[in-house]
Write a structure and sequence with these properties.
The chain is α/β, with parallel strands linked by helices. The protein has 15 helices and 23 strands. α1 crosses α7, α2 packs antiparallel against α4 and α2 packs across α6.
């Protein structure tokens, strides 16, 4: 049965507006068009900047208690419309209904954290008298809003990743322009509605939908933009950085995260956690487990259990409670990953399970013996594929895990505390998860990586710090 297609509006200059041209939003499972969203133009982009300049002035004047009230009201609104948000995520993204529920809960938690942390973002006194000649001065420093935040978000967490940019921006008294993924803009529009109905002054937020290549360049280059928050791929991030010039920037650019399994690990737990970490959201997660290195003495045991558990995953309709994995975001993306699998096999790799594609659905796939020059070894696959290899020594495992241009997070399974501490020290990543896979994150932790995995850290408090600047104040007390 076909669904009713709706025409959405974007939010610009303090009001909901439409345009002459529209972009299709499709359900990746059925490829049905579920909505049309406005295709913004350069003129809309310039209007967005003008509106955001007005919004920045308004937001900076909002008392802290008012910002906290808006954030709390927004969390209440989302909670009261919980199933609507779940339905939106399921319709436009790759997420199953169970995964969508988790994301809505995380969004509520993220915005709650924003309200709490807004009250804790304090300054410090400065002891001017520590320097001779400054005995008669007293001073302090405090944080003030940076101005206008440009947020560019991906498709894989269409609600919570937007909340991670909107929430901190509003909590710190900034205005924000949001460019959501062309594939999943509806969750952003629903979140914007939630903020506006919760009392957010209209000009504080702008949502531009459509082609990023058309509308982002004039915004990136504009001097009024003070801060850029981008989550996406390295190549796009590099272009954004180049176009923006000298602007404060935080970027999370993905990874091909490793997990190491030592011979003293709890194998059953390691198998369960890495299967979930590899194939949740069809592997379309920056923390997804892409490379697993297993000590040779337990390699075959781990491999057999991993394949058995992978076979038990139920791939199918996102709407069914029993489904473990849905489709990829588009058939085009599934075809890309399929070609990477084929490249790995042509170079000598072996498919131990999966590898078959039907439309946007790609089976959870387990590969081994994949050479280091294969695309799927070097790049972020962003699909339901995992590479499993053996190792003999600790140093070999660390070397293999670090042999990548990325460095977001890593997982290590071991019961030896000395080994765990040494791995923490030697792994070249932004976070190490002991007795967990790489796919672990809570919304309050500093989140980000090294090398090509990004610049700076997200996470509620850390985003709020990045979206503010220090101002130093000194009083001369001598008459």
């Amino acid at each position: 049965m076909s669904i009713q297609t709706v025409f959405e509006k974007m939010f610009v200059n303090g009001e909901w507006v439409d345009t002459k041209q529209y972009t299709e939003v499709c359900n990746p499972e059925t490829n049905e068009i579920i909505a049309y969203v406005p295709k913004a133009t350069k003129e809309d982009a310039y209007q967005a900047i003008d509106s955001a300049m007005e919004g920045a002035s308004i937001s900076a004047q909002l008392p802290l208690h008012e910002r906290v009230r808006i954030l709390k009201n927004t969390t209440s609104y989302i909670n009261n419309h919980f199933e609507q948000f779940v339905h939106t995520i399921v319709q436009e993204s790759s997420k199953t209904i169970r995964e969508a529920r988790k994301e809505v809960k995380r969004c509520i938690n993220t915005l709650t954290l924003c309200a709490e942390e807004a009250k804790r973002l304090e300054g410090e006194t400065i002891s001017f008298a520590q320097v001779e000649g400054h005995e008669e001065r007293i001073g302090y420093k405090y944080r003030f809003p940076i101005g206008i935040v440009l947020a560019i978000t991906p498709f894989n967490d269409p609600l919570n990743l937007v909340a991670h940019k909107m929430g901190p921006a509003i909590a710190t008294g900034n205005a924000i322009i949001i460019k959501p993924s062309t594939l999943t803009p509806l969750s952003t529009l629903r979140l914007t509605e939630a903020f506006l109905k919760s009392g957010l002054p209209p000009h504080v937020v702008t949502v531009l939908t459509g082609d990023g290549a058309e509308i982002c360049p004039p915004i990136l280059e504009h001097n009024a933009i003070s801060f850029i928050s981008f989550t996406g791929g390295y190549k796009t991030g590099k272009k954004i950085f180049s176009a923006a010039g000298i602007k404060k920037t935080v970027m999370e650019l993905g990874s091909n995260s490793p997990t190491i399994i030592f011979d003293d690990a709890n194998i059953s737990k390691a198998v369960h956690d890495t299967v979930q970490g590899a194939f949740s959201v069809a592997g379309q997660n920056c923390l997804s487990v892409q490379r697993i290195y297993v000590m040779s003495s337990i390699y075959q045991t781990f491999l057999n259990q991993f394949i058995t558990e992978t076979k038990n995953l139920k791939v199918g309709s996102k709407k069914l409670e029993s489904t473990d994995m849905g489709p990829m975001i588009t058939e085009k993306e599934a075809i890309r990953v399929e070609s990477w699998i084929r490249d790995a096999v042509e170079r000598g790799g072996s498919i131990l399970y999966g590898g078959k594609r039907e439309g946007a659905f790609l089976e959870p796939t387990v590969l081994t013996d994949v050479p280091s020059e294969a695309i799927i070894t070097q790049e972020e696959v962003f699909g339901p594929v995992v590479l499993i290899e053996s190792f003999e020594t600790f140093s070999e495992a660390i070397e293999k895990a670090n042999h990548t241009k990325y460095g977001l997070q890593a997982g290590v399974f071991t019961s030896n505390i000395q080994r765990a501490l040494l791995a923490i020290k030697q792994l070249d990543v932004g976070a190490v998860m002991i007795n967990d896979s790489s796919d672990v994150r809570i919304d309050s932790m500093p989140f980000g990586g090294v090398k090509h995995s990004g610049i700076g850290r997200e996470g509620v408090r850390y985003s709020m710090e990045a979206m503010t600047e220090w101002k130093v104040v000194a009083f001369q007390t001598k008459e």
